[in-house]
Amino acid sequence: MAARPLNPKSAPRSLSDVRAKSVPRHDPERLTTHSRVVHDTVAQIEQRLATAGLIATEPDFWARVRKAALLHDAGKVAEGFQGQLLPGGTRWGQRHEVLSLAYVDLLATGGGWDHEDRLMIATLVATHHRALHTANSGSVGGKPSLSQLYNSGTRWDEAFTSTPQPGGDPQIQVTVRLHRELLAWLSGALHMDPPFAPGGRTLAARARLTLDQLLAAWQQPTTPDLGLLAVLAQGALTLADHAGSAHAHFQTHMPLPTDYLRRLPYRPYPHQERSAETDGHLVLLAPTGSGKTEAGLAWAARQLLTMPGLPRVVWTLPYRASLNATRRRLRRDLTRPGEDAPDIGLLHGTVAHTLLREAAESECPDDGTSCGPEPAAAMARQARARAGAMHLFTQRLRVATPHQLLRGAIAGPAYSSVLMEQTNSLFILDELHAYEPETFGRLCAAMGLWERLGSRVAVLSATLAPPMTTVIEESLTQPVTCHRAPHGTSPVRHRLVLDEKPLADPKSLERLRGWLSWGYSVLVVVNTVAAAQAVYEELAEHARVCLPDDPHAALLLHSRFKNGDRDQIENNLLRRHRERRPRDSGRRGGLTVATQTVEVSLQLDFDRGAVENAPIEAVAQRAGRVNRRGLHLEGPVEFRVHRTAGGRPYDDGAVNASWNALNTLAAEGVDTLSEQDVDRLLQLAYHTEWGREWEKRTRKARDDFAATFLTFTDPFHDRTEFAEKLNREFDSVEVLLREDLDEYRSLTMGPDGHPLRAAGLLIPLRYGQLKTYNAARDKDLGLYVIDGVYDETTGLKPPLEPETIL
After folding, report:
1. Is 114 exposed, middle or buried (0-12, 13-18, 19+ CB in 10 A)?
2. How far apart, in Å, are the Cα atoms of 344 and each of 114, 341, 431, 616?
3. pLDDT tens digit string along 587-618?
4. What is the pTM of this model?
5. CB within 8 A of 669, min separation 6: which ones?
6. How far apart (Å, rounded) are the C-alpha atoms in residues 99 and 209?
7. Which residue among 559, 777, 785, 788 is least packed, with the fewest CB closer than 10 Å?
């Protein structure tokens, strides 16, 4: 019989009235329903992960997680918790998961669970929201741990048995009737007889006893494997709880077919065929435009046949523009005739905004003309729900930044599910060279962890120096197969010219104007946002004069645009300068000035290129956007590298090593930039004092990260402070211009208000740049508000200095 509708304003009279949530408001979700849903969601996670990696060493792993799923919210039966779910209800002030431990104690005794079962199930129940202990340093960056909330000063009976009320009778937290109904339901769900509780010990006493035992058990360091298994189990329960609350279902369908390589519309390259035949870890070195993406997918398709469960594929890239472009490309290439585009996950700082924009544009004409008013709040809510599902990792194919993966190493309720989902996965690390030594080292440490979790790794790059391959190989236990595209896979595409003059020198700018006048499409890549803005302002008007009827004759792309403006620029750029096809005509015209945002995974193609010197990998990647497939009618085209006065924002040693390598190559009589030439440049750059220092920094970062985060000897100590530090080191913060405050408030707080509707106004900055823009935290909005000069074409500039009055 279906449960009767629940009055959201009434207190529970029986177990069928006990709420788990305050929504839906007209008929809130029941505790028994939620517990069963979470239990069933654990089965979906088990189906996906099976017994991969370390989980295979613990036969009772999934049985314990299932039991914890049924018990994790038992403490919500308390009257105090039920009261705070009512409209206008007051805060209870106690943790429901602590009271849930009383039911673990009762059922463990009645069910005859052994010590290990009882300890682990109780641990999972207790920690699915809060850490047990503070960090080893004694400081806590997040919410108070359970050891702080419950200690020798706690009045346990007042908390969980009979709570005094001002001017009235005490509040009985769990009535005898509700207790018996809940115990009977839990026993039935666990397929056991209801336990007999001798001695009349109260629920409060049982909760206290069990929590004290947990605090003692996890106070001292444990073995690395036991600690990691505990965190994985916690991650499974937390993920099931979140997914169950959202009523999200994990995909079983894999958009990537196992016969992917045979479906390519052309004969595969040899390096693609070898990748498709490789079992285990892979490093692939192949030039830009030679099908690395297809090779990575072919490798992943092969692994799907030999791994347990339902493995997922995670594709990582360093920049937001390349993430968005790669997701679009995968959706296009993996769409089968007659089917809808596959559901591919996307994780970066503005994922929800990206999805909202896609939802809005789905109603727009294909010609890009106006599609009406702002998206309504209902559409924003839909996008937010979809983004939430992505954060719950329901998709089996996902595109992400490495920062999202490294966060998974921070044990705790907020991150253990991220770590759990790195089990039984295939990680394709694209353009790994783009990271500084510290990030590269941390990713290598993560590779070692992923291997322990039963996952496999493929590293794809056109510019991976020999020391990089060495560090990757020594970070993994299983063999790493290295494939290199045969020489000649890519034709010679560039005539390399080295220029001692700065790119902003008048003579250099005049040369660029000449190229534009002759009808060439020109790519200019500089190292800083300020330099990009300055060069663009020098050249944009001339580009427009050359192509007066082209609205995209001059484009500027860097990281310091509002999200909405940058999305439009990226779309215009990809359409205007798409990859050349065999029958395309010659010169295309047009100017693009950019920073390193264009270096990876954007299928762009220009007639000429002029770039500032940078680390040698960046120089080679910039060249990869010019005459990308060697189809230009003039054959190899000019690619000019200009010397810079300093390395900023790069390491000075890396930039100097690059310039010396380029000049050595020129002294050897080489004026091309072929595959062999790039290999030679990498060897020259890294066979230096800077290169040896790079290796030291990388190994130190790898080993320090492994020792600090990947040992899991203190699995239930809070690590929020480390997560915040990692955020500042790897991530940007989104800010709002002061002049946009009123519009932001209108979009978020009006009748159709929603934060996603205003996401297009936000601008990403590094934490270290906040001071430059006079950033101030707006507590009401939860944002940094900044001063600055902004233009939708050139982006954000620092605020103008006040004039000095003499």
Report:
1. exposed
2. 42, 9, 20, 33
3. 889 999 999 888 876 789 999 999 999 999 99
4. 0.89
5. none
6. 11
7. 777
